[in-house]
Amino acid sequence: MTVPGGARLVLATHNQGKLAELRAILEPLAPGLDPRAVISAALLEVPEPVEDGVSFVDNALLKARALSMATGLPAVADDSGLCVDVLGGAPGIFSARWCGRHGDDAANLRLLLDQIADVSDPHRTARFTCAAVLVAPGQAGPTVVERSMEGRLAHEPAGEGGFGYDPIFVPASEDAPGGSGRTTAQMDPAEKNAISHRGQALRALAPALAELLS
Q1: Residue 199 CB coordination number (10 Å)
Q2: CA distances (Å), origin 118, targets 104, 114, 137, 151, 166
Q3: Which one from 34, 52, 78, 79 is the annotated catalytic residue?
Q4: If you ran DSSP here, which 8-state letter would residue 37 be given?
Q5: Active-site residue 79, yes or no?
Q6: What H or E segment, with its residue span, contains residue 210?
Q7: Would you give the DSSP letter of residue 116?
Q8: pTM for the full model?
Q9: CB-CB contact of 10 with 41 (8 Å)
Q10: HSE (CB half, 13 Å, CA atoms) of 92?
Q11: pLDDT tens-digit profile of 148-171?
């Protein structure tokens, strides 16, 4: 495996949109930072670890530690999911495979809707939760942050944007008096990122990343 020259931080994702988001968050905190200093795992041949942790933090740590060990660089990873109150916090860490197979968004969403079909609006509360971590060689310990976006689950999907459970998640800000009642799938990406659990977590982690890169 060859790490690109100039790389100083690697993000555990193959999604270039997530990489652009992290670079944009870091830009005002680390003026003059070369974009090539922050890369994604997509540029590297690094096997993905088995995510067998019992929490979002556990799984994020697994990914960040594996990536940092493989590359010798500081690594950032996140793990997230939907936590529904009437289901005791499920699907949680199993959000991406709630239907029994990984990544079938439509089946996951439909199963969840069926499970809470008889639950009235006041009890359909839920939150998206994200844990983001930084692991760096020589660092005494990982930097860990966890953030959530509160909301309520709609009865039927609405919107074409986002992914996963976005079509049924109505953020608290949209559900409040004066809100439009939109799901996160009906919001444009910049609007969603401004309030999302993942955006919040990365912004909370950003000062530590900027210090590391300065």
Answers
A1: 18
A2: 24, 8, 50, 18, 20
A3: 79
A4: G
A5: yes
A6: helix 197-213
A7: T
A8: 0.91
A9: yes
A10: 14
A11: 999 999 999 999 988 899 999 999
